[in-house]
């Protein structure tokens, strides 16, 4: 699974960085991605141009607080996000990308209690109401790790 994620990320990032090769390619394509170090970590905040967000189809949804009435919620779960928002790194750690500003995303650690259907139940993670990326997260991961299509 991890190799598939890396491969998908590499393809997506090479497409992102290369931009469209057709007539509507612009000079801005070369600067579609900006990386800013997150203080005190080895992570980066990923900034994308509006065109890059559109090309990648980035979509977000809010972290939800687990309702006590939700039957599928395992004990100890406080939060829930769509499983589509979960990213695994090479050592199996779980992450999600949160939207920190317009077209700007930062990877945040997750403590998952369980996955039920299309939902990831969390012991800890971004707070309820935080926007997490549910479409385009592998591409952000590839951009953060600067994976090009040639790697």
Describe, in plain words, how this protein is organized in 3D.
By secondary structure, the protein is of the alpha+beta class. It has a single domain (26-137), classed as conserved putative lor/sdh protein from methanococcus maripaludis s2 fold. It contains 3 helices and 11 strands, in the order αββαβββββββββα. It has helices at residues 2-18, 50-56, 137-144, and strands at residues 33-37, 44-48, 59-62, 64-65, 79-82, 87-88, 94-101, 104-109, 111-116, 119-124, 131-135. Strands 1-2-8-7-6 form a 5-stranded antiparallel β-sheet. α1 packs across α3. The longest helix is centred in the N-terminal third of the chain and has 17 residues, at 2-18.
Structure at a glance:
The chain has helices spanning 2-18, 50-56, 137-144; strands spanning 33-37, 44-48, 59-62, 64-65, 79-82, 87-88, 94-101, 104-109, 111-116, 119-124, 131-135. The protein is an alpha+beta fold and 151 residues long.
Keyword list:
globular; disordered N terminus; 151 residues; 5-stranded antiparallel beta sheet; conserved putative lor/sdh protein from methanococcus maripaludis s2 fold; 4-stranded antiparallel beta sheet; 11 strands; alpha+beta; single chain
Estimate what percentage of residues fall within beta strands.
35-45%
In spatial order, strands of the major sheet run 1-2-8-7-6
Name the helicity range: 10-25%
- Average pLDDT confidence is 81
Amino-to-carboxy terminus distance: 17 Å
Low-confidence stretches: 1-28
The CATH topology corresponds to conserved putative lor/sdh protein from methanococcus maripaludis s2 fold
What pattern of helices and strands is seen along the backbone? HEEHEEEEEEEEEH
Number of helices: 3
**Sheet/helix structural class:** alpha+beta
> What is the annotated CATH architecture?
Beta Barrel
Global Rg: 16 Å
Biggest beta sheet summary: 5 strands, antiparallel
| Extended strand count | 11
CATH class: Mainly Beta
Structural domain count: 1
| Outline | globular
């Amino acid at each position: 699974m991890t190799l598939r994620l890396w491969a998908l990320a590499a393809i997506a990032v090479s497409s992102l960085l290369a931009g469209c090769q057709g007539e509507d390619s612009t000079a801005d394509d070369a600067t579609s991605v900006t990386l800013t170090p997150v203080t005190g970590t080895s992570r980066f905040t990923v900034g994308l141009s509006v065109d890059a967000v559109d090309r990648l189809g980035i979509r977000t949804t809010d972290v939800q607080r687990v309702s006590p009435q939700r039957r599928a919620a395992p004990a100890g779960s406080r939060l829930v996000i769509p499983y589509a928002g979960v990213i695994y790194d090479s050592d199996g750690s779980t992450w999600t990308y949160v939207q920190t500003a317009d077209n700007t995303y930062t990877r945040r650690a997750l403590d998952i209690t369980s996955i039920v259907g299309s939902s990831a139940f969390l012991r800890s993670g971004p707070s309820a109401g935080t926007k997490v990326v549910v479409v385009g997260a592998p591409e952000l991961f590839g951009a953060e790790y600067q994976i090009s299509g040639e790697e």
